[in-house]
Write a structure and sequence with these properties.
By secondary structure, the chain is α/β, with parallel strands linked by helices. Helices cover 43% and strands 17% of the residues. It has helices spanning 3-16, 23-29, 78-94, 115-129, 148-162, 186-197, 218-229, 252-262, 278-282, 321-329, 337-340, 343-357, 363-388, 392-410, and strands at 34-43, 49-60, 66-73, 100-107, 138-142, 210-214, 233-239, 242-245, 274-276, 288-291, 310-312, 333-335. A seven-stranded mixed beta sheet has the order 9-8-7-6-10-11-12. A five-stranded mixed beta sheet has the order 1-2-4-3-5. The structure holds nicotinamide-adenine-dinucleotide (NAD). The site of nicotinamide-adenine-dinucleotide has 25 residues, from helix 7 and strand 7.
Length: 419
């Protein structure tokens, strides 16, 4: 079995030691319900045709329609998609959203495509998976290297296919097409609310507040902004091209402006700013480390040098199981992805609710509802950690597993087939 999926399933096995759950439930949750692999054939601007492997996985729909993003990345593969769909299943359960877990991807370097090629690829994806997705069946959203513009094209394509406006088929859309206020920074904001809610328990209230952020895209930029505005000091930032550190603190917007001009955070120059390699940045002294890039970035090879006491996982699966054990041995507390980055899917859920009711909330309502859910579920996971003496990640999986198990039981003894 693929290492990434095996690592994810090992976390389920670990959680199962701490809650009473039937072995049939575990068996059900070890396999994806439905995965479709296709090749998308797309006309390039020069008249040639290229084909791209693409996937959509509906991992488990016991608790509702499946929900999960679509990633455009040259490294994507079916195992990664399946693992991400597994994580979505547990993430939606932790947050008590009425969803199962899904995920999709296209193996492509989107930066190598023109805008019109990207649009044709996005529409081709929806044509291929139109029978699988749907507002009551499977609801995609943005993920790495996809954005609201792409979601808009996809919603438009789906609406053409079903011959009626169907905004609830996809979330993360532009506002004029039924997007929600607050979706752009929701992932980071959810993580921020969680961190603030547990600031005392995490020992952050009266300590230094130095932060390192790995990955400077949607999640990384917004968490840096929110923490900077709250008095935290951003001492390290990185993207796929390199890393910068500055003991006196970095201004997230100034770095973003330099990145927009020069293509990387390393284009930012200022007093005391040093360009370092990725692992050197992870090793600098700080209180909070925020992985906000890709999976498996913190591994047995670099976890030992990390000095942060708190790891706020905004990326999905950034810490390998071996690195988890190393960090735990050092006394670090990892706020796990399925809880810490769930603000994104939570506001996606709000978008879907607003689309279906045709009534839109203001930004204050979105933020208040998001804060309430992050605090409620964050507290439950923290309390389980305390009462059972287990890591935060195991507690989050155990909390989700209890919900999934009771939903599986409530379906009764007949085989459960939808679609
Ligand atoms: P994004 O495409 O906006 O940004 C990704 C960033 O990571 C880019 O700055 C890229 O340069 C950087 N990066 C890539 N490889 C890197 C490496 N090896 N080292 C350092 N930086 C690297 O993507 P995003 O939406 O911000 O997603 C980031 C992570 O957050 C992913 O794991 C994604 O699954 C997760 N996530 C995102 C959302 C969301 O709503 N955007 C929700 C939940 C989880």
């Amino acid at each position: 079995m693929d290492d990434l999926l095996a690592g994810a399933l090992s976390r389920l096995d670990e959680a199962a030691k701490h809650v009473e759950v039937d072995s049939e439930v575990l068996e059900k949750l070890k396999y994806a319900k439905e995965t479709l692999s296709v090749r998308l054939s797309v006309r390039m601007d020069d008249g040639s045709r290229r084909s791209f492997p693409a996937w959509r996985c509906r991992y488990d729909d016991t608790r509702g329609p499946t929900k999960g993003g679509i990633r455009f990345h040259p490294g994507s593969n079916v195992e990664e998609v399946t693992t991400l769909a597994f994580w979505m299943t547990f993430k939606c359960a932790v947050m008590n959203l009425p969803y199962g877990g899904g995920k999709g991807a296209v193996k492509v370097d989107p930066h190598s495509l023109s805008k019109s090629e990207l649009e044709r690829l996005s529409r081709a994806y929806v044509q291929a998976f139109a029978g699988m997705i749907g507002p009551d069946r499977d609801i995609p959203a943005p993920d790495v290297y996809t954005n609201s513009m792409i979601m808009g094209w996809m919603a438009d394509e789906y609406s053409s296919i079903v011959r009626q406006p169907s905004p609830a088929v996809i979330t993360g859309k532009p506002l004029p097409l039924g997007g929600s206020l607050g979706r752009d920074d929701a992932t980071a904001r959810g993580g921020y609310y969680l961190l603030k809610h547990l600031e005392e328990e995490l020992g952050l209230a009266n300590s230094g507040k130095r932060v390192v952020v790995q990955g400077y895209g949607n999640a990384g930029l917004h968490i840096a902004r929110l923490l900077h505005a709250d008095g935290y000091r951003i001492v390290g930032l990185s993207d796929s091209r390199g890393a910068i550190v500055c003991e006196d603190g970095l201004d997230p917007d100034a770095v973003q402006a330099a990145k927009a001009r020069g293509g990387s955070v390393t284009a930012f120059a200022g007093g005391g700013v040093r360009v370092v390699d990725a692992d050197a940045m992870l090793a600098i002294p700080c209180e909070v480390l925020v992985p906000a890039a890709l999976e498996d970035q913190i591994h047995a090879g670099n976890a030992g040098s990390i000095k942060a006491r708190i790891v706020l996982e905004l990326a999905n699966g950034p810490v390998t199981p071996e690195a988890d054990r190393i960090l735990e041995g050092k006394g670090a507390i990892v706020l796990p992805d399925i809880l810490a980055n769930a603000g994104g899917v939570t506001v996606s859920y709000f978008e879907w609710v607003q689309n279906r009711q045709g009534y839109y909330w203001n930004l204050k309502e979105i933020h208040e509802r998001l804060r309430t859910i992050m605090e409620t579920e964050g507290r439950r996971v923290w309390d389980m950690r305390e009462s059972k003496g287990i890591p935060m990640r195991t507690a989050a999986y155990a909390h989700a597993l209890e919900r999934l198990a009771s939903a599986i039981a409530a379906h009764g003894t007949q085989p459960f087939f939808i679609g």
